[in-house]
Amino acid sequence: MVDIVRKTSPRKKLIRRIIYGAVALCGVLGTTVLLSRLKPAAPEVDGGTVWREPVVRSDMVVDVHGLGVLTPLDITWVPAMTDGRVEQRLVLPGQAVKADSVLMILSNPATEQAEVDADMQLKEAQAAYNSLKAQLDSQLLDQKAKATQVASDYEQAKLQADRDGQLAKMGLGSELTSSLSKSKADSLEIQTQVEKDRVGVLANSVKAQLAEQEAKVEAAKALYDLRHKQVDDLKVRAGIDGIMQLLPVEVGQQVTAGTSLARVAQPKHLKAEIKIAETQSGAVQLGMPATVDTHNGIIPGHVIRVDPSVVNGTRTVDVALDGPLPPGAVPDLSVDGTIELDHLHDVLNVGRPAFGQQDSKVTLFKVDKDGKGATRVQVVLGRSSVNKIEILNGLEVGDVVILSDMSRWDGYDRIRLTG
Questions:
Q1: CATH of domain 46-71+269-418
Q2: Which of 11, 185, 203, 287 is the most buried (most CB within 10 A)?
Q3: pTM to 2 decimal places
Q4: Residues 28, 392: contact at Cβ < 8 Å?
Q5: How much is the mean pLDDT over the chain?
């Protein structure tokens, strides 16, 4: 039997090839789409290296934290009260001083000479007063003696006139003699009154002249007191009991009035100056409770001042210390300060994540129930404290979330926890 060779037309071969090519192309396209839709495998993360914490419902303290130092509450800058040259420094920084302790001695020849001149002027004014007083007292005594003499003459003349009048009435004396005696007595009476008036006028004049000279003495004394104080101020005193902190001038240095010569502080009266981030300081108010950690004890306190200015992104908050100072608490000691802003009751909260500010939305990895994996979820955050933050949405009580920095796995919605 002979096989008959069938002939296939070129047109059919072309159609067959087109069909095969289309099927192959669809297969390639389907495979590509399928592969593109496949999610990347979840990366493995060592569970022992991540910080995880459960979500709880409890009261939460809203607070802010900052670093700072202890500073004296009572600080006295001792200024130069007059121009001078530093001759001696008698106290060094760190030494205890009393209010009347002499810290340094200045010199100023002009000031010292001015005191000598003022002393001489005071003595001259006092001598002039004493001389004038003696002179006026003498004049007043003379006038009083004259008035007394005239008064005595008047009394005698009055007695004479009375006697001559009686004799004339009895016919034993003449009327002329009686009249002359009476006229003399009347004249001396008037003169007696005049002399008394002169005593009063002179006494007032004495007072006025002495008062004028006394004013000159007082002026001279005031000038002397001023010059004496200026000389005394050349001995620079501490002004308060405390510790010498700073002595910024050297022996031989020329200083002018008003120059700060020393700083004295009371070491037992301290406050804390805490630097709070500008973004967190807006809610800080006067009187808010605070704690200050000296690393050797925690001291309760309260806010007494909030600096209105911002420096290097922070504001300074002064905290008064309400408790006793622990050992080693000295000025300029570095401390940690925490200020309580509010107390929230029965709120959903968790530890603060590595990235996540208050009143913001973040994504966190929520750990699976079996603890072998974690899925990224969106969480709405509320108010925060130093180590806690309020949860407004996205989590429930009992959920465990990873609080560590997970930015390395930002491209993944799920991770596997190992270890």
A1: 2.40.30.170
A2: 185
A3: 0.55
A4: no
A5: 86
